[in-house]
Each structure stands twice: as structure tokens, then as C-alpha cells.
Amino acid sequence: MLSAPDADIVRRDPGIPGLSIVLDPEAVIAALRPCLPRAGTARMTYVRYKPGRSCVVAYRLDGDGGLDLYAKASPPGAPAEPRMSVERSSASDGTGRIILGDGAIAVCVFPVDHKLKALRRLADAELRRRMLREVVPDRPDLWDGAFDELRYLPERRYVARWLSGNRPVAVLKLHTEREYALAQRNVTAFRGHASFRRARCLGQSDRRRILLHEWLPGRVLSEAVSDPDPDFGALTSVGAALAHLHAHDATGLSPLQRDVEAATLLGLSANLGSICPHLAERLDRLVRRLAGELMRAPRLNRAIHGDFSAGQVLIAGDGVAILDFDRAARGDPAADIG
């Protein structure tokens, strides 16, 4: 059954007819039961909602041995998933997509992902080995490694920890076509920087849109500062590392223009206003004022991380490592502080 807030969103967005199903775990199970009769309950693990455009919801299904899938609801006339078999997903035969409601909802059963094609190969031992030979041809010690999932954003990104025995040795990232181009270009931007560590790229596959980085030991800053007795001295080291990053003469970074920053803010405001209409007017006024201030601010051309947070920093002893430079750019360092 839909929660009251979700029911309000469905009522305000009739342009996505499948919204009432993908946001309701019970409705998802009922819709899938003809295809997956042994599926039990469904637990929502991820939601990405773009008002008027799409809604992607990931689920973990109990029963049938446990199953991970995501359901995507789109407006009529939006590019649809090809109609395919509704059998249990397989890494090699391409099954695992289910079309519901005359194309209003497309369901992908893991490891099938409409935009992360290499995920199916990762789930099959032999195909995975061939793929790793392509990514790191000079590292046979990694070809037969196992992996465990760190983060999965359907149709956006898959991140896994690569294991040799039980020891983590690398981080593998699968990207969409659009995100891979930026991430690949930024791989060498901060090479040789001495003030903080960053994970070296061990290999890549442009064809599969894969990047493999070395594993860095350490504790995530967001965990370190949430301890009952946190070490706030670590923040001084992190601040110094971020300042050095901003001063670094990184090569090949794309500029982040003020008008793009302003447009991003306005887009976020519109989306939040659709979800919380009682705040829409106040939010729009605030964001338009902020966007105006951004446009009047001087343009800066400094190296920035582009997605900086406490979750992107590792602390190991006195050292600091900064992770995930996929969105690094040239712009205003204030963007990394929020």
C-alpha cells in the first residue's frame, strides 16, 4: 500500500502512469507474481525520482532464493525497453527484463541493467575473467578475483570491491556512457600529487566503460567523526588536503561555468518543489536569489573535486586519501565546501 506522501506524489504526477506501482512494494509483488510466482515480500533499497520524467526504484525480493531488481516507470512515448523474455536473469543469454503495463514499467532483474551492460558479464565467472583480462592484461593475479558490491545505482553506476582471496585489492566501477567519458578523462588529472593520496587507476576498458582502481586502506571520515569520542584533529588534515587539491595545477579538467551551477540549482529547486509543494514558492525565491549571486560572483578556475563529502575521504594514521574524482572540474573551490 502506498504511504500517504507517496500517494500525494502519484496524484500530482499523472504523466507517469506506472508511478503508483513502482512506489508500492505490495503492488510490485502482485504485478511480478505471474513471472516470479515464488517471490515473497519486497523491500525498497533505492529511489531516484525525476518529476514528469521517470522513477527508478530498486527492490530486494525475499523468497525465490532472494532476488535484486529495479523497476522503472516512464511517461507514455518515452523510449521503452525492448520486449524480452521474462525468465530468471542469466549473465549470458540476455533474459531478465520484464515489461509491465503495456510498456509503462520496465523491470530489470539483476544483473541485467539497461545502461550498465557490463554488469551481466561481471556476474558470470568465465565472462568476468575474460573482461578482467581486457581491463588489466598485465595483472593475471586479478583475473580470477571475486567481488562484493559496495554501491549500486541502477542505470547510473556499479561499484564493487575486488578481492584476492579474502583480501581487498581493487575497486571496480561500471559507468554509463555519459559518466564514463568524464571519469576516464579525470583519471590522471591529479597524478603525482604529494599532499594527499588518491587511488591509482590499474586499468580500464573503454568498450565496457570500466575503471579499476587500487584499493586504499583507511577509515571513512564520515564514520570517524560520528564516534562517541571523535578525533576532530583529523579534520585539520582533511582541510589541508582539500586546500592542496584546490591549489593543484591539475590537467585536462573541464570548466564548471557559473551558468551551469545556477541551472543545476534551479533544476533541484523545481524537483524539490514538485515533491514538497507547500515549500515550492519559498524554495523558488531562495534559489533564484542564490542563482543570481552565483552569476554575479567572479569566475574562478581552480581545481575542484566536484563531489566532495565526508564519504569521499579516508583516514589512515596521519595520512589522508581523497576518493572518486569522477566529477572533478575547474571552478570555484567553495563548491566543494557546500
From TrEMBL:
GO molecular-function term, one example from the UniProt record: transferase activity
Keyword Transferase included in the entry's annotation: yes
Cross-referenced InterPro entries: Aminoglycoside_PTrfase (IPR002575), Kinase-like_dom_sf (IPR011009)
Gene3D superfamilies per UniProt: 3.90.1200.10
Keyword field: Transferase
Domain Aminoglycoside phosphotransferase as annotated: residue spans: 169-338
The protein, known as: Aminoglycoside phosphotransferase family protein
Organism the protein comes from: Eiseniibacteriota bacterium
